[in-house]
Design brief:
globular; binds thiamine diphosphate; 5-stranded parallel β-sheet; alpha/beta; binds magnesium ion; 7 strands; Rossmann fold
C-alpha cells in the first residue's frame, strides 16, 4: 500500500490533530497539579492515533459518543480546545457552561453526543442514535468509543446484539489500552482479540494497530461505508497503550518501566512523523507543526483561565430540561 498516495499535505492535518491532543492533555495534567481542575481528568496520551484515524473517516452529519477518557475524541471531532479547556476548568465559556467538566463534554453542534463517566455508559446511547438516524431517513453513522474494560460490561453485549439485529449504523471502537484502571486486561478476558467477540453477533470484527493512524483510518473508512450502505455495525478493536497513569488523580504506578519503554518505541506521533520524513518533509516543517500545536494550546489555556465560572444562581439551570419542552412535546 502506498501510504502517502495523496501526498503529505493530506497527512499533515492528522499530525496536527495528534500534536494538539498531546499538548492539550499535558497541559490539563499541569492544570490539575496546580489544583485548577476539580474532579479528575484521564489523559489520552499514547492513544491519539485512534481518535484521529477514526474521526478522519467521518462526515459532518455523523455522531460520536465518548468515555471518561474523551478529550482526544472531542478534539479529533473538531471541538475548540479553548471551550474544552474552559469546560474542564468549570468556566461558563465551556461546552456545558462549566457544569459538565472533563468527563461530560457534550457538543451537539459537532455531533458529539457526550462523554460518559460510567464505564460502558454510551453503548446504548450510540445504538439509539444510530437507529434514530435510520428511522429519520438520514444516513448518519455513529461511532461509539469505549475501553477494553467496558467490553466486559453487560451493556457492550446488549448493544452489539441489538445493533446487529437492527442493522444499526454503529461503529463500536474498543480502545484496548491494555489496562482498566489498575487491572491488566489480559487478566480479565480469555479471548486473544476483543474483536473476536463480534462473531457472537454475526457482525465483522477487526483488530488494528491503534498506534498507526493510517491503518486506523483505513479500517474506519471500511466500517463507515458498510454502515452507510445499511449493512449494519462493525466492531473495531484498536490495540494501543495507556502511556500515562489512569488519571491525573489516580497516579499509582501500574505499567512497568519495560512496558512503557517498549510502547514508547511505537509512539503514534513519532510513527507518523517517520512516514512524513521518509516522504521528504523537512525537520523545520515538523518543528513548526509542533510549535503551532503548543501555541494553540497556550491560547486555549489563557482563554479558559480568563473565563468566569457560571453564576451561582444558575447552578441548576441546564441540569433538567425546561418544563416548556415537555409542554411543547419536545421530550416525547
Ligand atoms: C460502571 C463503572 N464501573 C466502574 C467505574 C470506575 N472506573 C472508572 S474508569 C475505569 C476503568 C475503565 O477501563 P477501560 O474501559 O479499559 O477504559 P480506560 O480507562 O482504560 O480508557 C473504572 C473501573 C466506573 N466509572 N463506572
Ligand atoms: Mg483500558
Amino acid at each position: 500500500m502506498n501510504r502517502v498516495a495523496n501526498g503529505v499535505d493530506e497527512l499533515l492535518p492528522l499530525l496536527d490533530q495528534m500534536l494538539v491532543i498531546r499538548a492539550f492533555e499535558k497541559r490539563v495534567v499541569e492544570l490539575f497539579d496546580q489544583k485548577l481542575v476539580r474532579g479528575s481528568a484521564h489523559p489520552y496520551i499514547g492513544m491519539e492515533a485512534i481518535a484521529v484515524g477514526i474521526c478522519a473517516a467521518l462526515g459532518e452529519n455523523d455522531y460520536i459518543t465518548s468515555t471518561h477518557r474523551g478529550h482526544g475524541h472531542c478534539l479529533a471531532r473538531g471541538l475548540e480546545p479553548g471551550r474544552m479547556m474552559a469546560e474542564i476548568l468549570g468556566r461558563e465559556a465551556g461546552y456545558c457552561r462549566g457544569k459538565g467538566g472533563s468527563m461530560h463534554i457534550t457538543a451537539m453542534e459537532h455531533g458529539m453526543l457526550g462523554a460518559d463517566g460510567i464505564v460502558g455508559g454510551s453503548h446504548g446511547i450510540a445504538v439509539g442514535a444510530a437507529y434514530g438516524s435510520v428511522l429519520l431517513g438520514q444516513d448518519s453513522v455513529v461511532v461509539c468509543f469505549f475501553g477494553d474494560g467496558a467490553a466486559n460490561e453487560g451493556s457492550f453485549h446488549e448493544a452489539l446484539n441489538l445493533a446487529s439485529v437492527l442493522s444499526a449504523p454503529v461503529i463500536f471502537v474498543c480502545e484496548n489500552n491494555q489496562w482498566a484502571l489498575s487491572t491488566p486486561t489480559r487478566s480479565t478476558m480469555r479471548v486473544e482479540n476483543i474483536s473476536d467477540r463480534a462473531v457472537s453477533y454475526a457482525i465483522p470484527g477487526v483488530s488494528v494497530d491503534g498506534n498507526d493512524v493510517l491503518a486506523v483510518r483505513e479500517v474506519a473508512a471500511e466500517a463507515v461505508s458498510r454502515a452507510r450502505r445499511g449493512e449494519g455495525p462493525t466492531l473495531i478493536e484498536a490495540k494501543s497503550y495507556r502511556m500515562s497513569p489512569h488519571s491525573a488523580f489516580a497516579t499509582g504506578e501500574t505499567s512497568t518501566p519495560e512496558e512503557l519503554a517498549e510502547w514508547s518505541l511505537k509512539d503514534p506521533i513519532n510513527r507518523l512523523v517517520d512516514i512524513l520524513r521518509a516522504s521528504g518533509v523537512e525537520e523545520d516543517r515538523i518543528r513548526k507543526h509542533n510549535e503551532n500545536a503548543a501555541s494553540l494550546i497556550e491560547a486555549a489555556t489563557e482563554f479558559a483561565l480568563e473565563a468566569s465560572p457560571p453564576p451561582a444562581e444558575q447552578a441548576i439551570h441546564d441540569v433538567y430540561a425546561p418544563a416548556d419542552w415537555a409542554r411543547e412535546g419536545r421530550l416525547s
